[in-house]
């Protein structure tokens, strides 16, 4: 073997072997551009066909996305509720069976480790979904509690069905009684002889559901949905992580690893973030019993704010990717844009940005320094930024019950 062959062999030996999803046979059929990436070790589509068609499927018709790679943990036992209330910053003691809520959890210094959704399946039985691997932290935090924690990512297949016609599509596929399902409900339903848990949840800011099934039933669920497209009844498209990133930014949803460093991954002491610095102070409840990070967060709340993740609308049409932000009053650099997208539906640049406060207050006027390339030449421009207190785009149908049967 010569040196070139040896180098090639070494490279091949270190390739990541991506795990197939239970939906992989259908995912591969629809992956026209073969644009794949790894999501928690699964082979996942970044784009199936075109980014534009997938984006407008979410906003105009119906989109389907394989959520199986999402980290999922089953937490059960006599003290499951007490353990979870100790783990997360939000008070979940009144979360009823059949309901879902958004939660974050911190380390002892009050810095966010991850965010996710907590499903109360039945009394003493929960499912926690997270973006990153959390089993080690969950096991460590459960010491002293009579609770069982199981990693069930590979045992549960999940499919997001999002968009204006999501309700009509799932109803047409054969899942009944969805008109009574309210936002953040999770209910047991059937599709033929398949058991399906349906939650009215999503990451798009639009009407949507997430369907959870046994992996052996995954293809049957997919086929029942796409049969409606084959019959010419609905326009249904699978979407990848590229389109999801666009709509989640429009909806103002943050992403660990993109918009902030988690406490576990941050290397420098000032690179992790607290709930207050992420604009998630509304998820912190000091009236409930002790939770991990409580004392640190009490102390932080008493100090002047140092920084916050803000939603900014950027003037102009130049892409503000990774742009630096400046205070117009003194010209000092105050932050960086973390996520951005040109919103096709809003016709403007919308971004999430990490911004430092000045004397505990937001700067009165923020400008972005944007570098962009035009015909192989780099140029610089300045754009004024406007703070948005609310999500850039949330459609009323996302919370309407019953939803319109489009």
Task: Throw out a few tags for this protein.
six-stranded antiparallel barrel, about 400 residues, six-stranded mixed beta sheet, alpha+beta, Alpha-Beta Plaits, Gyrase A, domain 2, Elongation Factor Tu (Ef-tu), domain 3, about 30% strand
Describe this structure in words.
The chain has 406 residues and is of the alpha+beta class. It has helices at residues 3-13, 24-30, 51-60, 80-87, 135-141, 166-173, 218-230, 241-250, 294-301, and strands at 35-39, 42-47, 62-66, 71-76, 99-106, 112-122, 125-130, 148-151, 157-162, 186-191, 194-199, 208-213, 236-238, 307-314, 324-327, 333-343, 348-356, 366-374, 377-387. The protein has 3 domains: 19-68 and 156-250, Gyrase A, domain 2; 71-154, 2-Layer Sandwich (Alpha-Beta Plaits); 304-387, Aminomethyltransferase beta-barrel domains (Elongation Factor Tu (Ef-tu), domain 3, Beta Barrel), CATH 2.40.30. It contains 9 helices and 19 strands. The strands form 4 sheets. A 6-stranded mixed sheet has the order 10-11-12-9-3-13. α6 crosses α7. The radius of gyration is 22 Å and the shape is globular. The model is unreliable at 1-6 and 8-12 (pLDDT under 50).
β-sheet strand percentage: 25-35%
Query: Which residues sit in consecutive blocks of at least 5 with pLDDT less than 50?
Result: 1-6, 8-12
**What can be said about the biggest beta sheet?**
6 strands, mixed
Q: Can you tell me the CATH class of the largest domain?
A: Alpha Beta
SSE pattern: HHEEHEEHEEEHEEHEEEHEHHEEEEEE
- Find the count of extended strands (DSSP E, 2+ residues): 19
Shape: globular
Number of domains: 3
Mean pLDDT: 95
Helix content: 10-25%
CATH fold name of the largest domain:
Gyrase A, domain 2
Give the termini separation.
63 Å
Strand order of the largest sheet: 10-11-12-9-3-13
CATH H-level superfamily of the largest domain: Probable tRNA modification gtpase trme, domain 1
- Judged by helices, strands and strand pairing, the structural class is alpha+beta
Total helices: the number is 9
CATH architecture of the largest domain: 2-Layer Sandwich
Rg result: 22 Å
């Amino acid at each position: 073997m010569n040196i070139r062959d040896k180098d090639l062999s070494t490279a091949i030996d270190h390739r990541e072997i991506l795990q197939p999803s239970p939906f992989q046979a259908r995912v591969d059929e629809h992956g026209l551009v073969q644009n794949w990436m790894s999501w928690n070790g699964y082979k996942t589509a970044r784009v199936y066909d075109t980014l534009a068609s997938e984006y407008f499927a979410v906003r105009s018709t119906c989109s389907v996305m394989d959520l199986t790679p999402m980290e999922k943990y089953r937490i059960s036992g006599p003290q499951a509720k007490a353990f979870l209330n100790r783990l997360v910053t939000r008070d979940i003691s009144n979360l009823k069976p059949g309901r879902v809520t958004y939660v974050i959890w911190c380390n002892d210094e009050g810095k966010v480790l991850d965010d996710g959704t907590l499903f109360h399946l039945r009394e003493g039985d929960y499912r926690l979904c997270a973006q990153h691997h959390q089993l080690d932290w969950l096991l460590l935090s459960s010491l002293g509690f009579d609770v069982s924690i199981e990693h069930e990512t590979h045992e549960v297949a999940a499919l997001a069905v999002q968009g204006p016609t999501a309700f009509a599509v799932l109803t047409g596929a054969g899942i009944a009684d969805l008109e009574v399902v309210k936002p953040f409900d999770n209910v047991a339903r059937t599709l033929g002889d398949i058991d399906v848990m349906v939650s009215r949840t999503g990451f798009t800011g639009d009407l949507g559901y997430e369907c959870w099934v046994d992996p052996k039933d995954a293809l049957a669920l997919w086929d029942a949905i796409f049969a409606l497209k084959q019959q010419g009844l609905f326009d249904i498209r699978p979407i990848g992580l590229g389109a999801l990133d666009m709509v989640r930014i429009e909806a103002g949803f943050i992403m660990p690893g993109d918009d902030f460093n988690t406490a576990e991954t941050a290397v420098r002491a000032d690179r992790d973030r607290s709930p207050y610095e992420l604009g998630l102070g509304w998820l912190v409840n000091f009236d409930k019993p002790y939770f991990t990070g409580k004392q640190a967060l009490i102390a932080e709340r008493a100090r002047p704010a140092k920084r916050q993740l803000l939603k900014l609308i950027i003037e102009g049409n130049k892409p503000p990717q990774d742009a630096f932000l400046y205070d117009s009053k003194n010209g000092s650099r105050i932050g960086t844009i973390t996520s951005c997208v040109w919103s096709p539906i809003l016709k403007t640049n919308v971004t999430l940005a990490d911004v430092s406060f000045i004397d505990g207050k937001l700067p009165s006027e923020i400008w972005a320094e944007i570098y962009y390339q035009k015909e192989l030449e780099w140029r610089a421009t300045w754009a004024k930024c406007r703070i948005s207190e609310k999500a850039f785009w949330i459609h009323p149908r996302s919370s309407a019950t019953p939803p319109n049967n489009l």
